[in-house]
Each structure stands twice: as C-alpha cells, then as structure tokens.
Amino acid sequence: MKIVLENVVKEFNTFRAVRGVSLEIGSGELVALLGPSGSGKTTILRMVAGLEFADQGAIYFGDEDATNIPVRERGVGFVFQHYALFPHMTVGENIAFGMKVSKKARSKQEITDRVNDLLRLVKLEGLNDRFPSQISGGQKQRVALARALAVDPKVLLLDEPFGALDANVRHDLRRWLREIHDELGITTLFVTHDQEEALDLADRVVILDQGAIVQEGTPEQVCREPNSAFVMKFLGDTNRIAATAVNGVVDLPGARLTAPGVVDGPVDILARPGDLSWSATGEGIPVSVIRVIDRPEGRRFLVRTENGETLELDVPVSTRAASGDRGFVQVLQGNAYPRS
Ligand SMILES: Nc1ncnc2c1ncn2[C@@H]1O[C@H](COP(=O)(O)OP(=O)(O)OP(=O)(O)O)[C@@H](O)[C@H]1O
C-alpha cells in the first residue's frame, strides 16, 4: 500500500509543528523519519495513523484520500517506544487481542494458530503464557510487533520502538526488524532520532528539521551528498574548519579543496574524522594532541589548532601520540558551506 502526504500542515494552537510536508512512501518500502527532538516526526506519524488530523493538505492510502478516515478504519499497526502491552494479559492474549475485537470474525482455532505463527515469526515460541512483567524489554517489543501484525495491517508505523532498550539489544532488534520487513513486505514508516538506526534499517531516510523535510534519499545519498551543513552535522561526527573560498577553491595548509558553486568569501569546511589525516612531521594544520581515545573500531585523536579549534580525527591503531605532542592535520576531503 503506497502512502502519499501532500503538503501536510499541523498546528498546535498557533505553533506550526509540521510545515507543508510532501512525501511518498512506496508500497513495501521501509522509510525512516529522522530528525532532532521536536522536528515533527511523531506528529507526522500520528497523522498517518489517524490519531491526529492535518490542518491543511491530504494523506492518501493507495488512491484513497485517507485524510479524515478514523484510526480504526485505516488498517495500520503501531509499535511505540513504551510497550503498552496489557499487563494483565499473557503474551498470547496480548497478541490475540486485536483479532478478538476486530470486525473480521475468526474462530478460536484460527486465532490460536495465528498467535503461534506470529510467536514463531518474532522468535518467541514457548513464551505464550508469560505475562509482560516476566519478559525482557526486547522481548516486549517483539510481542508488541507481533500484536501489531496480528490483524494484517496494510501499513506498519513504528515510533522509536527500540528507544528504551540498551545498545546491544537495539542492534539485534534492528537487524531482526529488517528481516521481518523483507519477509512480509509491509509498507513501514519508522520514526527515530538515532542516525545509525535510520541508516541501518531504512530503504530511504527522510530528514526533518523544525517541521519541514530538509533532505530525503537512500542512506547512500544522504551520507555521501548531504545538501546542507545541518544534514552533514546531524548524520555524524564532523569537524568545522574556518576558511575562505576563492573562485570555487579553498586553500588550507597542505591541502586544496574544490568548492564548486560556493560563493567567494568565508566558509566552514565540514569534514568527518575519517577525512583528516595525521602526521608528526610534515605539512598541514599545526595542532597539539589533547587526548587519544581507543575504541574497538579504532583510535581517535582529539587535537587543538593554534586558533583554539578542536578537531577529531581517526588514525590507524599503530599511530601513537601522547597528550601535548605536536603534529599536523591534513584535510583529505570536506564540504564547504557558507559560514553560518
Ligand atoms: N499535542 C500537542 N500540543 C502542543 N504542542 C505539541 C503537541 N504535540 C507536539 N507538539 C509540539 O510539536 C513539535 C513537534 O513534536 P513531535 O513530537 O512531532 O516531534 P518529534 O520530532 O517526534 O520529537 P521527539 O524526537 O522529541 O519525540 C514540538 O515542538 C512539540 O512540542
């Protein structure tokens, strides 16, 4: 089921939380709405769900104008951050709940079979008779997904479903959700403020700021071609280096970057920690080391320039330095944006 949002606006009193959002989610696509807190992600999801109504614009489910269709008739399944499982019902009863209250009549046997199928799908066989208080947070979110899937939704809406879980569980659930999505192919809209989660999971990422879409594209497009300093900074660690553009070129100590289309004048070069290199002697921006940080994935130097700017750069684990050591940083790659 394709979903289309056409110039959707939502105001709370006089505050415009969503400012004319247009978006198409293809049938079977998994799209992530990604943005900082307050950027309007949840409000958009709630309008798609029918829990909130747009003040302007339209929302289509397939070819049908769903803008004013109430939540019960939209055929959507939800999973929220806070599990909202019914505490007095077992896992099996929680999953069966939607089927029991649905307009579509199902026999007891049909419901039991469907619950067992779903428990297998979410890899929770055998937990049928436990209560929510007797399972882990990650397991609760699997039950919540099984419950959402039980009524064969046309659309799945997930609002920070793994937000309350620890990093390892989140990581596993992310992979698992993608597998389930690939198996079932349900059109899915996923809200998160976690860049890594969005990039890992989604076919397409829609980046929001202050109620408006600032960029959308595949993870590759938004990572490799961020269209603004905001998007580049929001998607991952960046260094900012003050410089000047002249005739589409920015000269830095030991490096020349092209900045096509950038107006002459002061610019900020934004560069990822992996786009800077270190040399103890040689050319580049003179710096002194503040700290060396070791992580499983590699080593990072925090350094300070003579202007007092702090830079972070990833170095090979064989590169050694101590706090106070002097050296040089070369900018191998970076994007130039007019100085903000
Ligand atoms: N019912 C409401 N009444 C008044 N203002 C609201 C209401 N719901 C949301 N807002 C405001 O609308 C803006 C967008 O909120 P929304 O929850 O959509 O953002 P979000 O991107 O999902 O944020 P978060 O990541 O913190 O959940 C915020 O400024 C919020 O305070």
TrEMBL record:
The keyword Transport applies. Residues 3-235 form the ABC transporter domain. GO terms for molecular function: ATP binding. It comes from Aquamicrobium zhengzhouense. This is Sulfate/molybdate ABC transporter ATP-binding protein. Keywords: ATP-binding, Nucleotide-binding, Sulfate transport, Translocase, Transport. The lineage of its organism: Bacteria, Pseudomonadati, Pseudomonadota, Alphaproteobacteria, Hyphomicrobiales. Pfam families: ABC_tran. PROSITE patterns: ABC_TRANSPORTER_1 (PS00211), ABC_TRANSPORTER_2 (PS50893). It comes from the Bacteria. Belongs to the ABC transporter superfamily. The keyword Translocase applies. Coiled coil: none annotated.
